[in-house]
Amino acid sequence: MPSPTPGPRLRRVTEGGCCVNPTWLPDSRRVVFIDRPPDGAVGLYIVDTEAGGPSAFFGERLGYYAAGYSLLWQPVGQTIQIQRLSDGQTFTVRNGGRTINVSPDGQRVAWQVTPTQDGVPLEQRLSQVWVADIDGQNTRQVASLLRASLTGWFPDGQRLLLSGRPDPKSQAVALSVLSLADGSVTELTRVERLRNGAVSPDGGWVLYSVAFHPDKAQNGLWLARSDGSERRRLDFYGAAQWRSEGKLVYIPLDADAPWHVLWEYDTATGRSVPLTDPAILPFKVSNGDWTVSPDGRKVIFVASQDHNLWVIDLPAP
Asked: 274 with 285: CB under 8 angstroms?
């Protein structure tokens, strides 16, 4: 086993037990989380992981935030109401009140529709994918697939990651990249029991998983280049997140381990190295509640021991 990369540091940023769902703001310093302190209201709270000090009340609205907490959206009847928090301006998207996926730059939204068809089983219904500007203008259908699933946006806001069944006679699901500029589709893989993917920070890679496939060689974590040029099965399994373009941070799945360990996988070398050593930095994440900061230099998690938020400072990615 290779020696851990030196330098990681473990520190607590909240006290008294608190919270769930920590989410980084774009500055990679502040974290927003859900809490209900003994002397406060249920809502969102914020803590500065660098400055220290007690957390502060962020807001009581537990709606759907997007684009780095710059937008707040919620369904209202047959529409989606989106509020821009910087100036309070509100936009309306008339999409039947369906869940939306907001582009990283906050300029567009996408959603999917599976029309009701009497006598047609759900497995055989065509799903449509639609996009619109953030203000609800320029609405258009961009795809129609059997059992389509909208996974999310690429960082450039010009491509969508979709899955669906190309062949109605097969249970295989295709994971594809749809270009909104020209409508072209790049298929990354086609396999049964596919689970949704995660796009790398610059959009060059997609991480996805396959589980419970009859062919055990298909099960596990996989990487695919977003241009369709390469696909590889990873030699580890566990909870994985992108740290930077081409580098993953993961916690191997080991139900009997007393402590968790952070590892880093490098797509350029195909090798993994441990970032932490439990003999030096013992920690355990509660309920998989952890996330990597946008700059890749920190991991925040809810600790299983005291249910506080803790930060692991990492060397530069």
From this structure: no
